[in-house]
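thought: fold this chain, then report.
action: predict
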Amino acid sequence: MTTEGPFSFIQAWYLAHLNGFWEHGNGVTIESLATPGWAVTIDLFGTALEDREMEEVAEHRSATDWILCRVDHNRFKGEGDPRKLGAILQVFQNWASRASTVK
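observation:
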């Protein structure tokens, strides 16, 4: 298990996939939502995570405390309230670290 934080992890993961081709049609997107909140999309095509399944993470405590993360059509998709950007990236880090070591 890695001790690096989720922001360092996503930077390293992204850098590891830059090959002159992957980044032209794939990548990492972080957007704000009108709800308000965050949306994170991470393309898994052409990576060790392609076609890997992930158990959905869904917690809805209130209108201002929620997170939803899943893999859909070879994309990690995470959404959460304005305080959940780090938590969304942490869900990705935890899953990616486990999934890339298990066949």
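thought: worth noting. Strands lie at 28-33, 37-43, 57-62, 65-71, 75-80.
final: tokens above.
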